[in-house]
Amino acid sequence: MPIHAMSEVKPIMIPKGQPGFVETPYVEGVIRKATRYVQIGYPVHFSGPAGTGKTTLALYMAAQLGQPVILIHGDEEIGSSDLVGGQYGFRRKKVVDNYIQSVLKTEEDVSSRWVDDRLTVACKYGFTLIYDEFTRSRPEANNVLLSVLEEKMLDLPAARGEEGHLRVDPNFRAIFTSNPEEYAGVYKAQDALKDRMITVKLDHYDRETEIAIAQAKAAVSEQDAQRIVDVVRGFREICQNGMSPTIRASIIIAKVIKLCGARPMADDQAFVETCLDILGAESQNGSEGLEPKEIQDSVMGLISTYCN
Q1: CA neighbor of 128 nearest in space, from 16, 249, 245
Q2: Chain mean position to CA 61
Q3: Rounded-to-integer distance, Cα 290 and Cα 293, Å
Q4: DSSP summary character for residue 42
Q5: Are 210 and 246 in contact (CB under 8 A)?
Q6: Is there a contact between 192 and 146 (Cβ–Cβ < 8 Å)?
Q7: CATH fold of 25-84+116-201, please?
Q8: Structural domain boundaries in the chain
Q9: What is the spatial distance between Cα 19 and Cα 26, in angstroms, rounded to a whole number?
Q10: Out of 176, 177, 213, 238, which could bridge 54 as a Cys pair, Cβ 3.0 to 4.6 Å?
Q11: What is the rounded distance in angstroms from the CA atom of residue 82 to the CA atom of residue 89?
């Protein structure tokens, strides 16, 4: 019996119909071309700044493929063994022979126990792998992916006790995400790894999509969503050197005013205060953010333009 054992990796099934997922011509276009690449066997890499829906798109696309999903979140502490697997505890077997009552024979065997981890499980059973923010993991940890994506072969440690390699199941699919604008806790991906995937660059959504997302996520009217999104998009254009507000800013503002019964109008104090707080915090996150007076004047000007 095992003294200690790591729990087996369990894939997740994502339903194809995802409540709250917004489909607009822009989103449908991204999903359509990315699915095309994946279906012919190439891994897809969604690359874009925060708030561009990389993870949401990856999960939705994986759901449409209809396969179980293995999800990995990039992290500095991840090593190759966290992807492939390792030895976790021991398995002990004891045989007691007391056939002759006066003679007692015992035989004991102790062996290490190997447990496959997420990448090995996905490759072995043909699951869809989502590696979210993979550049947060150290490049040497991701080296194991090179042969998986190119030669469709996973190299395995001798300690696994089986063949030294695993042929990747033909149904295996891989979707990666990364934020090229992030500077903290991120590593530069190997050229060899990027060369093995097709990168789909994402940017901020178009106005129609942002309105649809804000309306769906916060359950506000289309008119209210339009006003909020226009203020946020207008402020985004002003923040050339600072941190640009994303669709998350529109969603937060919409949820707050929905909760407190406010309206996106220039004479609604709760709405104005919320915009100043949310947009001010976003713009000051950058190294060259706007000054507080500039933020207030800009936000008030945009509210006056779009919310009267």
Answers
A1: 16
A2: 12
A3: 8
A4: -
A5: no
A6: yes
A7: Rossmann fold (3.40.50)
A8: 25-84+116-201, 207-306
A9: 18
A10: 177
A11: 15
